[in-house]
């Protein structure tokens, strides 16, 4: 039978996989968030409304409010990370560049290996990956979305203040510097893949008559 390699148990649940049909191997590349004295907040884009994202404007307004309220906190940097759909829309990029001071265009692997950061978003595979790599993940709870990825904090568009208070608390304490890396993401990705293959071969040999 087929065996699927997944990032974590949540992804297996999302794909409705039976327990004996998948292996958790973590991220398909090496990534581990590094400690840092300053704190970066990465606002993850949803995609332009022209691509069928009806809540694009609502999320953008929330992100704008977050940037304004966090601008007064020392050593706290806010980045907007455009969705790939946004990057190919010049008008959309012109709009977001007019709102946000810092635009994050790093490749995904470099983004995951950046200093430990807070990733904020709605429904994005990047939030899955950020959590596994050891970053903090915050969900902006939009009513018409349902997420199953692990998060450290959730807030609604009407309660941005609660998120700001949470960030301030995290900034004042040192615990965010020692956030535990997902155990499935230890070792290099080749080592994790090889271990998974060994487990599968062991299972096959065990089932043979």
Short description:
With 209 residues, this protein is an alpha/beta fold. It has helices at 9-14, 56-70, 84-87, 90-99, 108-112, 125-133, 160-172, 189-207; strands spanning 4-6, 22-24, 39-44, 76-81, 117-121, 136-140, 153-155.
Q: Radius of gyration, Cα only, in angstroms? A: 19 Å
Distance between the amino and carboxyl termini: 16 Å
Along the chain, the helix and strand elements come as EHEEHEHHHEHEEHH
- The percentage helix is 25-40%
Largest sheet, order of strands side by side? 4-3-5-6-7
Number of strands: 7
Largest sheet: 5 strands, parallel
Shape: globular
- Helix/sheet category: alpha/beta
What does the average pLDDT come to?
77
Q: Oligomeric form of this entry?
A: single chain
Compute the number of helices.
8
User: Which strand-content bin applies to the residues?
Assistant: 5-15%
Poorly predicted residue ranges: 175-181
């Amino acid at each position: 039978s087929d065996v699927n390699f997944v990032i974590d148990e949540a992804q297996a649940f999302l794909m409705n996989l039976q327990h004996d049909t998948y292996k958790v191997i973590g991220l398909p590349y090496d990534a581990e968030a590094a400690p840092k004295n300053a704190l970066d907040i990465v606002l993850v884009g949803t995609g332009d409304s022209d691509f069928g994202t009806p809540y694009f404007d609502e999320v953008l307004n929330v992100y704008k409010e977050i940037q304004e309220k966090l601008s007064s906190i020392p050593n706290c940097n806010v980045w907007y990370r455009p969705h790939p759909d946004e990057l190919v829309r010049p008008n959309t990029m012109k709009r977001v560049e007019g709102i946000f001071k810092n635009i994050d265009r790093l490749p995904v692997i470099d983004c995951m290996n950046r200093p430990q950061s807070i990733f904020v978003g709605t429904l994005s595979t990047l939030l899955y990956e950020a959590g596994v790599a050891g970053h903090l993940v915050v969900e902006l709870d939009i009513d018409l979305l349902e997420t199953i990825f692990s998060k450290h904090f959730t807030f609604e568009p009407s309660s941005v203040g609660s998120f700001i208070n949470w960030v301030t608390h995290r900034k004042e304490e040192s615990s965010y510097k020692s956030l535990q890396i997902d155990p499935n993401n230890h070792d290099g990705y080749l080592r994790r893949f090889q271990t998974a293959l060994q487990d599968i071969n062991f299972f096959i040999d065990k089932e043979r008559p």
